[in-house]
């Protein structure tokens, strides 16, 4: 019988010997390597945080003591030790739980999280509530070094340090963000590692924290000693652990960036790099070309270069033409605005789910100033992602900011034309929703100048029904167009709106003449989005409108096909709804 | 002839003697006290930053050297020294310029700013552009100590410190935010002041900055020496100035919070505190009552307590039931979520213009987790404010976040009922748009339970036209209702929608029966807002809809009456538009 067999909940750890705890760590490590390679998931961060998690649950008493995991890239061992072992040992159950903490799974999880840099603040809330209610418990926030660059983390730490109470911040310093860290703070962490935590200045002490350093953050006795030392402390305290990302898997230890998160089968090399062209690859080609042409062209990315095909090789080729600003989306947007103000040519490459961390900066620092920076929004689409990483909100968010031009290309030619226009022009802040899916050909000439704003492209002039297929959903509109002709004998009008952030009022007003119904299709939530702008414009004329898109909800790992069915987004469902509306 | 008479642009300073520079400072101080008291404006911050501004423009060469002011609460002297003196000396011109920096006013202004904590990032962008373009200039970011608590400032500083280039951060440490500072960082600033900048740890050095301290930050020779020392530095450098907020005005030096920003006539005591009840005052009364009843009730505010009637006296009464988290809206929302998760009763009081700094936290940290925190949004209204402080965007922002219930009360009774429900219930994150304007009486019973979500209240059942008056604009709908009867003989349906974040589909579907037109009125932008949700719902039935509200634009100090006319929001314009739509 393995040690792991005997452990289901934190209390099962309490009676284990140090040797058994070490065996447990080894068993969990083998299990995680096998399981994550089978399902995909966060690999390096979890392998590096096995011993600290065992030590936390050995020393503290969850759920009386509250442990909050930042972003929860590192929570798998915690899940195994808190009643969810079967989901890691039984392949039939692999996909039944989330890759992140989730209170619906366990009383040991305090928040659904998936964006970084939040847990100092969340933990401050828990600690303040404890004190208001005069309860007694330790509140522990686990946060990675990479997450410390995010502004929310700083705001939380700054407030945490001013509390006169128990709050333990465990800094999991594996010397990496998703990609290498960037920012002055990381020089300080390096100094602290170099000096066994004794060096000055000390960032954490400067904020007012008590401070404990653990040099081998994967060594159980050291960890247990450190946690026992700070348990029940009446002071805000940082425990700085130096851990090894990917520990126990040579490939992951050596290539920390590639093994931060892996696809299934990565360890056996079943995932060779894509060789086919994609929207990501043609974007990178464009970046390289512009970089050669214009020394003031620069690509910014907030700590997710791999997710936008900016591999270490491409970054090296871009040289000064690339800057990873760390997990710092607010800074990324404001910095892009500053670059554009001074005449440089910044392009910010950012995921849909993360651009929402910088709404105020998009509005105030960028759009209000009309600085001609370009924002490329990747992964904007209805998807089966975790609730924390949905890409369906960006259009309702960016599309309602004054001055900001938000474009939705429908083909590779149109995308590159829009990108090139956006980079060359000097009048507007421009965001472009990078298409999702395989490269599509335009099959017709595309415009090169998008400065006459909010002009729709009418691709087919028909009657009865007008189909507006925005961005990714233009091809869905084409399919519906074909079905309408086949099944109902309707030759509909087909429109490529091109602009997310405004409607073509003239075009929409003209539709009243020969149309009974306007149909909008968008790859995002309907509420606050493009289609509702169209509805507002058409409804003043009494023209019927159907808006198709996602409902306003946090879907969680629901397969895309199921979401499409649920939201009435299959071509046949749309045709049926159109038929009903025309009755 | 005064020294000020001779000075119009920075170059005019270069030939002045130190004595003349000092005289100039005294003259500007007298001018500012007189002018700000006449017009209202940021008082304390500007009085404390006269000598540093003179020294900056004496040592550096603007606009070749670029000086960026964070939030620009302290830019009046800069304006006087860069071609805009007449706007401070000539009462006829007082209102012709903005209270903030604005590139349209002067080539010495780099950005329109009005939200805090942005300029380290903006300046990093300027510095990076300079280096990419191989130009030579100093880039200087002026930032107050209060602004340093904002996450965007940290992200910017963290990136700035990692640059291997010239970037000078001037920290204007007047020992105050708008109200007193909160956060661990301020302990470190106090240590640095106490030790003449020599103490350890040093927050700025921990990030990697070179560091210079000036103890008397209002002493011209010290300032000039410090700036000359760092001019053309090849390193990111912090110049930490200890200045006196309100310097030269005894009242302002003694009562820094009250004199941060003043109304006209404040120095002569023409502005006694309001004694009439208001939405602010009944909110405070509610806070005090709840605090007495429930020790877990707590009010959070991010550094603008005065703007929401949380005076020092009220804060003292609330004691542990109040926390100013500093300029840290992201933390405020996440902390509220943590408090609610742990069973406390947090209410976050925040201005409309600033809640947009925490979109991701509202979505991920709060709404996704369904933690029952309450957010009170103040000042949400179409107004004649500066472009940086508009209150018209919050409904399009909060109204499209899943799970978040956003309520729009129309009277004091309804507001208190909603607030009480929001605090007591445990199912939803709830935001309430605090009504703007004088207290209104409901004149009818109001609901006490708002948990059946998205149910509109039909106040008058009529026909032909249905008027939906949301929140502040319910009373406008009442006026229109009356005019419709008087002028067109139409007894319209009058609806109080109550919910911003969703529509009552049943109610709207029923309207098709006896109505030809649905009219929505909302005190915010139409795009992405409530009315477009109604349009989307009604347009599927082919029902005509007119959406009234603000256009999507950054209006800048346009009088509210003019905005109403421009947006067709006067009762008579609305009636006219309705009449046209019914033709």
Structure description:
- 2 copies of one chain form a homodimer.
- Chain A folds into 3 domains: 3-262, 3-Layer(aba) Sandwich (Rossmann fold); 279-433, Rossmann fold, CATH 3.40.50; 457-582, Rossmann fold (3-Layer(aba) Sandwich), CATH 3.40.50.
- Chain A is globular, with a radius of gyration of 26 Å.
- In chain A, helix 7 packs parallel to helix 8, helix 15 runs parallel beside helix 17 (359-367) and helix 20 (474-488) crosses helix 24 (571-582).
- With 583 residues, chain A is of the alpha/beta class.
- The model of chain A has no long low-confidence stretch (mean pLDDT 97).
- Chain A has a 6-stranded parallel β-sheet with strand order 9-8-10-11-13-12, with helices on both faces. A 5-stranded parallel β-sheet of chain A has the order 2-3-4-6-5, sandwiched between helices. A 5-stranded mixed β-sheet of chain A has the order 14-16-15-17-18, with helices on both faces.
- Chain A is 39% helix and 16% strand.
- The interface between A and B is large, with 121 and 121 residues.
Quickly list its features.
homodimer; 583 residues; alpha/beta; Rossmann fold; 3 domains; six-stranded parallel β-sheet; five-stranded parallel β-sheet; 18 strands; 16% strand
């Amino acid at each position: 019988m393995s040690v792991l067999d005997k452990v289901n909940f934190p209390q099962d750890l309490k009676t284990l010997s140090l040797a058994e705890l070490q065996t447990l760590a080894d068993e969990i490590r083998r299990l995680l390597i096998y399981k994550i390679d089978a399902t995909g998931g966060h690999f390096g961060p979890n392998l590096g945080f096995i011993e600290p998690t065992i030590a936390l649950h050995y020393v503290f008493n969850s759920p009386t003591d509250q442990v909050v995991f930042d972003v929860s890239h590192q929570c798998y061992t915690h899940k195994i030790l808190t009643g969810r072992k079967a989901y890691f040992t039984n392949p039939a159950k692999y996909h039944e739980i989330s890759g992140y903490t989730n209170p619906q799974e366990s009383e040991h999880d305090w928040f659904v999280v998936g964006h970084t840099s939040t847990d100092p603040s969340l933990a401050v809330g828990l600690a303040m509530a404890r004190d208001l209610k005069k309860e007694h418990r330790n509140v522990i926030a686990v946060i990675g070094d990479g997450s410390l660059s995010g502004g929310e983390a700083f705001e939380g730490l700054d407030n945490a340090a001013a509390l006169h109470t128990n709050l333990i911040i465990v800094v999991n310093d594996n010397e990496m963000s998703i990609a290498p860290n960037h920012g002055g703070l990381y020089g300080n962490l390096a100094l602290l590692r170099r000096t066994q935590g004794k060096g000055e200045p000390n960032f954490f002490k400067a904020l007012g924290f008590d401070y404990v350093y653990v040099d081998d953050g994967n060594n159980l006795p050291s960890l247990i000693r450190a946690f026992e030392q700070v348990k029940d402390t009446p002071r805000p305290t940082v425990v700085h652990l130096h851990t090894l990302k990917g520990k126990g898997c040579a490939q992951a230890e050596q290539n920390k960036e590639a093994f931060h998160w892996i696809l299934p089968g990565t360890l056996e090399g079943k995932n060779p790099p894509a060789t086919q062209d994609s929207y990501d690859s043609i974007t990178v080609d464009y970046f390289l070309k512009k970089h050669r042409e214009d020394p003031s062209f620069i690509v910014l990315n907030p700590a997710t270069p791999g997710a936008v095909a900016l591999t270490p090789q491409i970054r090296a080729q871009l040289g000064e033409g690339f800057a990873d600003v760390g997990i710092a989306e607010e800074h990324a947007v404001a910095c892009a605005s500053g670059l554009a103000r001074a005449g440089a040519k910044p392009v910010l490459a950012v995921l849909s789910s993360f651009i929402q961390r910088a709404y105020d900066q998009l509005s105030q620092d960028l759009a209000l100033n009309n600085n001609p920076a370009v924002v490329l929004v990747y992964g904007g689409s209805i998807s089966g992602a975790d609730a924390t990483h949905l890409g369906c909100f960006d259009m309702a968010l960016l599309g309602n900011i004054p001055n900001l031009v938000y474009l939705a290309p429908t083909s590779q030619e149109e995308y590159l034309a829009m990108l090139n226009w956006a980079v060359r022009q000097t009048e507007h802040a421009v965001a472009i929703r990078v298409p999702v899916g395989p490269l599509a050909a335009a099959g017709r000439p595309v415009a090169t100048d998008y400065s006459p704003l909010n002009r729709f492209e009418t691709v087919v002039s028909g009657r009865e029904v007008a189909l507006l297929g925005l961005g990714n959903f233009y091809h869905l509109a084409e399919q519906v167009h074909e079905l309408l002709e086949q099944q109902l004998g309707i030759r509909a009008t087909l429109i490529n709106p091109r602009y997310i952030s405004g409607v073509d009022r003239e075009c929409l007003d003209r539709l009243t003449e020969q149309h009974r119904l306007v149909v909008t299709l968008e790859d995002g939530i309907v509420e606050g989005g493009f289609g509702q702008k169209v509805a507002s414009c058409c409804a003043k004329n009494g023209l019927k409108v159907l808006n198709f898109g996602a409902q306003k909800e946090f879907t969680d790992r629901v397969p895309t096909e199921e979401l499409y069915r649920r939201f009435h987004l299959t071509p046949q469902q749309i045709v049926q709804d159109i038929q009903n509306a025309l009755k």
